[in-house]
Amino acid sequence: MNKCWHKMIPLAAALLLAACSNLKPAAPMDYSAFKESDPKSILVLPPLNESPDIKASAGMMTASVRPLAEAGYYVFPAAVVNETFQQNGLVNPAEIHEVQLEKLRQIFGTDAVLYITVKQYGTSYQVVQSDTRVTADARLVDARSGKELWSGSATASTAEQQNQNQGLAGMLLSAIVNQIVASVGDRAFDIAQITGARLLQAGPPRGILYGPRSPQYGQQTAGAIAK
Amino acid sequence: MKTLYQWLLPATALLLTACAQQSHSLYAWKDYNETVYERLKSDGKPITQQLQRMEKYMQTARDKQQTPAPGAHAHLGLLLADSGQMQQAAEQFEAEKQLFPESAVFMDFLNRHYTGAKK
């Protein structure tokens, strides 16, 4: 076998490491409350919207479902949840975020509740190019104790695609955007899906823990807790 | 030096596996999110179109033997209830409950609310 081939391995390994680590900025996180709570289901409440776009709450709520489900949790159906609140006279996310946990548990039987706030949503037209950006914060709370289990923040923007110097993570982003772009013809919705994936994807160092329906459930964070 | 390479090869393989696992999907997604979004936003497509799309999604998941996304049966149930097909709606809420027992409390609630069914 060619000797050169062996020299490629460390390089390839380093590239892979760089690619993987690019997706997740490093910083340790305390998961003890999360592990103790060990939720099986997550109720995502209609997100609070601090942006001028009236579709922000719907877009971000939709974007939260897939990452949470793929992380191994049961996620309550967004539209059905939303209409259940509406039929009980709660239309405004701000009111819904005030509903007592006990009441939420009684109707939905959920283990945990996710509160999302949309900070930015939509397109701003700048001199050279327009930028569609979605930024959101999220807080996961135990539905029994009210304890905070996890919190995070993420952003995604079309400006990332136009930037050439950002390696594999950027290429993936373009691929995802191109894949879904024609689907609803709604660019902010597409970007929200990426924000959602970044915000709620499971895994260290700052992501949520894997839930019981994931094959990776219970396999992580032995080290994270020690810190 | 040789031992280093012997160690590196499995390490590289592990890394590849770790990366590949991230893209493995537990559920059928397709256009499910877009369909839910149609319902959530105020200016969505007519209910008949949403129903068709949702039924097609379910059919494709069945054909490919993939599990429908959590909430998909319940979402279909909502659309059915909204178009007056109460019996079919109740069946979908029941299907959600069978597939995801975590949803039991909510599905019972919906059944009582939409179809007035006995518990």
Q: What can you see in these coordinates?
A:
The complex is a heterodimer of chains A (227) and B (119). Chain A has helices at residues 4-22, 32-37, 56-70, 78-87, 93-96, 101-108, 159-162, 167-184, 187-200, 222-226, and strands at 41-44, 48-49, 74-75, 112-125, 130-142, 148-157. Chain A is α/β, with parallel strands linked by helices and 227 residues long. Chain A has one domain (26-220): 3-Layer(aba) Sandwich (Rossmann fold), CATH 3.40.50. In chain A, helix 3 packs across helix 9 and helix 8 packs across helix 9. Chain B has 119 residues and is mainly α. Chain B has one domain. The longest helix of chain B has 21 residues, at 2-22. The radius of gyration of chain B is 21 Å and the shape is globular. Chain B starts with a helix and ends with a helix. Residues 16-22 of chain B have low confidence and may be disordered. Chains A and B meet through helix 1, helix 3, strand 3, helix 4 and helix 6 of A and helix 1, helix 2, helix 4 and helix 6 of B.
SSE blueprint and pairings:
The complex is a heterodimer of chains A (227) and B (119).
Chain A: H1 4-22, H2 32-37, E1 41-44, E2 48-49, H3 56-70, E3 74-75, H4 78-87, H5 93-96, H6 101-108, E4 112-125, E5 130-142, E6 148-157, H7 159-162, H8 167-184, H9 187-200, H10 222-226
Parallel strand pairs in A: 1-3, 1-4, 2-4
Antiparallel strand pairs in A: 4-5, 5-6
Chain B: H1 2-22, H2 32-40, H3 47-63, H4 72-82, H5 86-99, H6 104-115
Helix pairs in contact in B: 2-3, 3-4, 4-5, 5-6
